[in-house]
Specification:
Elements lengths: L9 H11 L9 E2 L5 E2 L31 H13 L3 E4 L6 H12 L4 E4 L12 E3 L3 H11 L1
Parallel strand pairs: 3-4, 4-5
Antiparallel strand pairs: 1-2
Helix pairs in contact: 2-3
Length: about 140
C-alpha cells in the first residue's frame, strides 16, 4: 500500500474519536449483525475531521456507484491469474466489480468456488456452488481438515 498521508490507521482514528467523545466507549448498546453498535442517542457525538484537510472523513471503501481504483483492479486481476482457485464468500455477485474476477478465473481455467445463500450471478461459472452460509460452511471445512 502506498504511503498516503490522508489515510488514517483504524487505531489512530479510534483514539482521536475517544478523546473527542469521552465516555462513549462505555455506552455499548445492542450490537447489530454487521458489527455496528446501536445507540439510543448520538446528538452529542463529535465527529473527527480529516487531519489533512479538515473535511469530512470517508472510509477507505468503494461505495455503490463509485469506481474501484484502476490500480486495485489490476492488482486483483494479477492475484486471480496466480491463484490455484478463486473462492467467493457471501456475495451475490450482482455488481460487476466482483463478477469480473469470477469471469477472468473461469476464462483462465481456474476453479471457482462460490459459497452463498441463494443464487448468484456467477453460479453458471462456478466449478462448485455451495448454497449455505459462509460461517457454518467454513467452520465445517475447518473441522474436516
Amino acid at each position: 500500500m502506498p504511503d498516503l498521508p490522508w489515510l488514517t490507521p483504524r487505531g489512530a482514528l479510534h483514539d482521536r474519536l475517544a478523546r473527542l467523545n469521552p465516555g462513549y466507549e462505555s455506552r455499548v448498546g445492542e450490537i447489530a449483525p454487521d458489527g455496528d453498535v446501536i445507540l439510543d442517542e448520538t446528538a452529542d457525538f463529535d465527529v473527527a475531521p480529516c487531519s489533512t484537510c479538515g473535511g469530512d472523513l470517508k472510509p477507505d471503501v468503494v461505495f455503490f456507484g463509485e469506481s474501484v481504483p484502476k490500480e486495485r483492479v489490476a492488482s486483483c486481476f494479477a492475484l486471480v491469474a496466480e491463484a490455484e482457485a478463486l473462492v467467493v464468500l457471501g456475495s451475490s455477485l450482482q455488481v460487476m466489480s466482483g463478477l469480473r474476477f469470477v469471469k477472468a478465473a473461469r476464462k483462465s481455467g481456474i476453479p471457482v468456488v462460490i459459497i452463498n445463500r441463494g443464487p448468484t450471478r456467477g453460479d453458471e461459472l462456478a466449478t462448485v456452488k455451495i448454497d449455505a452460509g459462509c460461517a457454518e460452511t467454513l467452520e465445517l471445512a475447518g473441522a474436516l481438515i
